[in-house]
Amino acid sequence: MILLYALIAFGVSALLTYLIMPVLIRFCVARGLFDMPNERKVHHNKIPRLGGVLFAPATMMGMAAVVIIMILQGNNSVQFGLSAVLLFVALFLIYIIGIVDDILGLDAKIKFAVQIITAVFMPLCNLYINNLYGFCGIYEIPVWVGYPLTVLVFLLIVNAINLIDGIDGLASGLCMICLGVFSWAFTRLSLPYSLFTFGLMGSVLSFMYFNLFGKTERSTKTFMGDTGSLILGYSIAYFCIKYAMFNPAVVPIHVHDCPILLSFSLVFIPVIDLIRVAIERTCKGKGMFTPDKTHIHHLCMAAGMSMHAALAFILCLQIVIISINMLLFHVVGISSTWLVLSNLLLYLLVIASLRAHIRYREAKA
């Protein structure tokens, strides 16, 4: 029954996003709300940038539809605890900041301050990383370590999703993979979180249709903007931390199942790419957030891939990493420590290969 309710939330959210998106795109065109091309971006036309504005309301409407159906059936089993309320309050703050930034523009310091505030909500609500499940031989960790670690992880994931949004379908595609796995996980564990993940998936899927297949000349193409990437980043960060926290009363997972490995695997590509790019910029004497074209999608395209080929390559790489980690951990029994190291090695090998191919193309030209 949980799956049926979740699918209803998915359908309602997807349908609303699909029907309202053309109206939103026309509004952006009329008001001149475009993502303008420049030397850092891969698109060459001005594109409406508010597609992600529909993520949160469409998801809420999908969830509301299910709650109404359940009430009409006399089923009052849906209960939202403090942790769930936290999700919606912080999501609202992120949503408002994203809209203001997309329409008027905001100083990066203000956006980062709001991210820190919403991140701190989690440990204050007793939602934090409290166990590493044997990674580097560490299991339970004290509160004074778990709280700042949670805030750091949250900020990493939110900004990683925001900065990986450089080509059509990449941020949304990576998030769809995350949401798909969490949808499966929470369908077995919790109705409210299952409704949210399925509802958000429905809205993102409809957005991807316009983002990937829309035509600029027909005004049917859109970008998610900061509103969309922040909503997705916050949601993914929340679920990664929620799933990784050792709390058998809420998420009945055994400590030896290492749920933190799954959370790590799901966000590996965007997070490790953010860390690599920040380190490289610092080593070159630049600011960590100085714009350039060194993200993995930029390297893929510089190596000769088309935008869609780069998208497929990165999504496949993420799926391979998730699959290998789960298979080798649960079937073969390889420790999370060695798996993380192998993931890092594979990623660095891919980056080195891309750069070698770029140098070959430049020398040949």
Q: What integer value in Å does the Rg equal?
A: 20 Å
* Spans where pLDDT lies below 50 across 5 or more residues: none
The number of helices is 13
Strand order in space, largest sheet: 1-2
Record field, number of beta strands: 4
Order of helices and strands: HEEHHHEEHHHHHHHHH
What oligomerization state is this entry in? single chain
Quick one: biggest sheet? Answer: 2 strands, antiparallel
Write down the overall geometry: globular
Averaged pLDDT, please?
89
- How much beta, percentage-wise? under 5%
| Helix/strand class | mainly alpha
Fraction of residues in helices?
55-70%
Q: CA-to-CA gap between the ends? A: 60 Å
Task: Tell me about this structure.
The structure is a single chain. The protein has 365 residues and is mainly alpha-helical. Helices cover 70% and strands 3% of the residues. The protein is built from 13 helices and four strands. It has helices at 2-31, 55-72, 82-103, 108-124, 143-163, 170-187, 191-213, 225-244, 259-266, 268-283, 296-302, 307-332, 336-364; strands spanning 34-35, 47-48, 131-135, 138-140. The strands form two sheets. A two-stranded antiparallel sheet has the order 1-2. A hairpin with a 2-residue loop joins strand 3 and strand 4 (138-140). Helix 6 runs antiparallel to helix 7 (191-213). The longest helix is centred in the N-terminal third of the chain and has 30 residues, at 2-31. The protein is globular, with a radius of gyration of 20 Å. It starts with a helix and ends with a helix. 41% of the residues are buried.
